[in-house]
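G., the chain you wanted modeled:
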Amino acid sequence: MLIRTLISGASLAMLALAAHAQPATAASAAATPGIDQRETNQAARIQQGVASGQLTRRETRRLEREQAAIARTEDRAKADGVVTRSERRRLHTMQDAASRDIYRQKHDRQQRRAPGANPNGAPGGS
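Predicted structure as tokens:
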């Protein structure tokens, strides 16, 4: 009876140790689904602004560079396999600023002219 108890106790201890010793996979520890979804939404907002003419080419380039900076920061945060609370907070802060920038650029008075449009607004080309 004593031997059976010792063997089962040792088995449980080994299982617990093995489970604790296994490192978390990079995909699960560094998962950022909320951040990824927000990046997707912001990219769609930029593309919608381009399609509607609300964003000029210059504004679009600036906003896309800002999105690329967020993606680089996220890649650096994920590099060690764990996104810490402070890294996650930094990413959210960057995304908040990018969201405000997208809104402001889409709602300012600048609009992209249609190809061939007269800059004075008069119809006709020549």
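Residues 54 and 61 are 13 Å apart (CA to CA).

Shout if anything looks off.
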